[in-house]
């Protein structure tokens, strides 16, 4: 509980008195007093949003009491309390949007942010890429080294995926060993290059430093929308990326698949592979 010497006594501290609700007053009436009343009101709102109703009541009562004082001072301690509560609220919000294992963003953040970026891309036409990523043969890693070790591998892969991402891009865990890279304001070729660079970082990482004989690769399907000629939802773009991921898997894994017109292609060294699956995915 916040204790600042003037926020009021805890009604359950032994006095036996339960505080009654304050006489309702408008926000304008409270704010017309001084900065101290405003700060008390701000703290009350923040505490109430966290379910700390008792403390919120005391601060609101203090704000109302300020109305009877002509020239109250605004202590720095009160300002610090407001700032501290705001930081704690922002931290709690950020933690609610992160995957607890890998610290990448979670599905909730992906859905919220992707919807905003799709709408923005529809207006600006600056380009938006969504890359769906899957670890190759990850079940074998878990079966061979154990699930706790598999968790360490996932954490390392996320670190490698997030290296050198463009401004505004982010990584989110889609589920299990699947992740998503969202790349806003980007051209198709640049999106493929970012994904191919991520694939190479994973492939060439010295996995043997974690376990003898260990090797990890990823497959990626990257779908790009320029934002013109019709609205494509985030879900539709993820479906397209999933079809391209399927093409990369069927082409031998450890590859980045993308669409060039009606044709599905593979990036980098995998470009020489030829598969019928690629043609099938183009019409997915």
TrEMBL record:
GO terms for cellular component: plasma membrane. InterPro entries: Diguanylate_Cyclase, GGDEF_dom, Nucleotide_cyclase, Rev_trsase/Diguanyl_cyclase. Gene3D superfamilies: 3.30.70.270. GO terms for biological process: cell adhesion involved in single-species biofilm formation; negative regulation of bacterial-type flagellum-dependent cell motility. GO terms for molecular function: diguanylate cyclase activity. Residues 1-35 are annotated as: Disordered. Residues 126-261 form the GGDEF domain. It comes from the Bacteria. Pfam families: GGDEF. NCBIfam families: GGDEF. This is Diguanylate cyclase (GGDEF)-like protein. It comes from Saccharopolyspora dendranthemae.
């Amino acid at each position: 509980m916040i204790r600042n010497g003037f926020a009021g006594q805890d009604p359950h501290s032994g006095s036996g008195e339960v505080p009654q609700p304050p006489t309702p007053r408008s926000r304008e009436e409270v704010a017309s007093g001084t900065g101290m009343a405003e700060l008390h009101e701000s703290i009350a709102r923040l505490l109430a949003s966290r379910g700390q109703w008792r403390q919120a009541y005391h601060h609101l009562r203090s704000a109302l009491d300020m109305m009877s004082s002509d020239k109250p001072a605004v202590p720095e301690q009160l300002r610090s309390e407001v700032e501290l509560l705001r930081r704690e609220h922002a931290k709690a919000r950020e933690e609610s949007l992160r995957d607890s294992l890998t610290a990448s963003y979670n599905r909730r953040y992906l859905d919220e942010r992707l919807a905003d970026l799709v709408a923005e891309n529809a207006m600006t036409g600056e380009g938006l890429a969504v890359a769906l990523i899957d670890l190759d043969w990850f079940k074998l890693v878990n079966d061979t080294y154990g699930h706790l070790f598999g968790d360490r591998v996932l954490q390392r892969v996320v670190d490698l995926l997030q290296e050198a991402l463009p401004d505004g891009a982010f990584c989110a865990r889609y589920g299990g060993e699947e992740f998503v890279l969202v790349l806003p304001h980007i051209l198709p070729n640049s999106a493929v290059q970012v994904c191919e660079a991520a694939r190479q970082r994973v492939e060439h990482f010295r996995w043997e430093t974690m376990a003898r004989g260990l090797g990890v690769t990823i497959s990626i399907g990257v779908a790009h929308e320029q934002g013109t000629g019709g609205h494509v939802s985030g879900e539709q773009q993820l479906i397209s990326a999933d079809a391209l991921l399927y093409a990369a898997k069927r082409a031998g894994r450890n590859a980045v698949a993308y669409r060039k017109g009606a044709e599905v292609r593979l990036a980098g060294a995998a470009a020489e592979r030829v598969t019928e699956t690629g043609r099938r995915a183009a019409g997915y």
